[in-house]
């Protein structure tokens, strides 16, 4: 459990650390097996492996903006019936207790699910589909951010071959495991680019291509 008590990291019985996207996917998989048909909520930045593991038992995945407030609000809504919500930094919410991050309760729920399923933690990790997520950053002056976002949005919406989602930033999806998300940073003059591909090299190339595209737009604005 991290120092603030809100986030966790796990180590399996073999001593292997479990963090980030793999931790989120592992707990989602355990929820799907202990609560068939359950609903989990994750951020738009989470990899598609979450949908893959939840689908095994007819589970449902809801995606929210990256601001933790949106995840908590979604988890707290009684009509949504969210069993678990989580991010990529070890933060988990179990609304049955409270719609807020609680590292201790997340740890206890993990132990409870392991007890129900009677399997070691490493087995849940081993059966996960491959996680191929790339995260890169590109600088953009404040005065160019708005125009770059407008251009990216217009070009993405004009390309009818792919699906464009504007839940948070601009997410362009070509296939379930092939997508790119551009998020403007609220505090710094940068864009964060998330990408997933069929392979890690494919994800890296997808993110790099978008970074280069944004860099060209920034140059054109100057």
Explain what the structure shows.
The protein is 41% helix and 22% strand. It has seven helices and eleven strands. A five-stranded antiparallel beta sheet has the order 7-11-10-9-8, with helices on one face. A four-stranded mixed beta sheet has the order 4-3-5-6, sandwiched between helices. Helix 1 (20-34) packs across helix 4. The longest helix is centred in the last third of the chain and has 22 residues, at 200-221. The model has no long low-confidence stretch (mean pLDDT 94).
Q: TL;DR of this structure?
A:
The protein has 222 residues and is α+β, with helices and mostly antiparallel strands. The chain has helices at residues 20-34, 49-55, 68-76, 103-117, 121-126, 142-158, 200-221, and strands at residues 10-11, 17-18, 39-43, 60-64, 84-86, 92-93, 133-139, 163-165, 170-175, 178-184, 190-196.
Write the layout of secondary structure elements.
Elements: E1 10-11, E2 17-18, H1 20-34, E3 39-43, H2 49-55, E4 60-64, H3 68-76, E5 84-86, E6 92-93, H4 103-117, H5 121-126, E7 133-139, H6 142-158, E8 163-165, E9 170-175, E10 178-184, E11 190-196, H7 200-221
Parallel strand pairs: 3-4, 3-5
Antiparallel strand pairs: 1-2, 5-6, 7-11, 8-9, 9-10, 10-11
Helix pairs in contact: 1-2, 1-4, 6-7
């Amino acid at each position: 459990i991290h120092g603030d008590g809100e986030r966790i990291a796990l180590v399996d019985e073999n001593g292997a650390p479990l963090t980030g996207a793999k931790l989120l996917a592992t707990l989602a998989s355990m929820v799907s097996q202990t609560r068939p048909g359950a609903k989990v909520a994750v951020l738009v930045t989470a990899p598609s492996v979450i949908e893959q593991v939840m689908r095994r038992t007819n589970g449902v995945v809801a995606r929210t903006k990256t601001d933790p407030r949106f995840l908590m609000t979604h988890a707290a809504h009684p009509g949504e019936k969210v069993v678990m919500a989580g991010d990529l930094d070890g933060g988990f919410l179990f609304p049955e207790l409270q719609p807020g991050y609680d590292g201790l309760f997340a740890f206890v729920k993990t132990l409870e699910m392991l007890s129900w399923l009677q399997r070691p933690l490493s087995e849940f990790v081993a059966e996960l589909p491959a996680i191929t997520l790339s995260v890169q950053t590109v600088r953009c002056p404040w005065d160019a951010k708005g125009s770059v976002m407008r251009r990216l949005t217009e070009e993405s919406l004009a390309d009818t071959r792919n699906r464009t989602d504007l839940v948070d930033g601009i997410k362009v999806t070509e296939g379930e495991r092939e997508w790119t998300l551009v998020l403007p940073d609220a505090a710094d003059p940068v864009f964060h680019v998330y990408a997933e591909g069929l392979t890690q090299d494919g994800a890296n190339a997808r993110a790099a291509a978008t970074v280069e595209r944004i860099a060209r737009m920034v140059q054109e604005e100057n």
